[in-house]
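User: Show me a protein chain along with its predicted structure.
Assistant: Here is one chain, sequence first, then structure tokens.
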Amino acid sequence: MNVKPPKINYLTMYGQQYLHSQILWFGEQVREQPREQVVRLVNAIREDSCNLSEILRRLGLKGRRNLYVNYIVPAIEGGYILRSYPDKPNHPQQRYYLSEKGLKLVK
């Protein structure tokens, strides 16, 4: 069986590259598995809408950059969370809430 390696999507931010999702191969079938950080973020937001400060507090994190790069961006790209102002990621009143896909992931 000739299996090709998966294409890996990278997000370039702050001059570094970050892997935004894990891809599991099962023969010819590809399935995307949400990262542990995305699962933690989804469970922190739940049915609420939160700004970055609230999410930092709920997750017990201190760095906004770490939160954005390792949690928010992969969750948005995976379709688990949505922005209240999708066209303006730096809007001062930006809030994040779960999509239908994210609601299915809540434990």
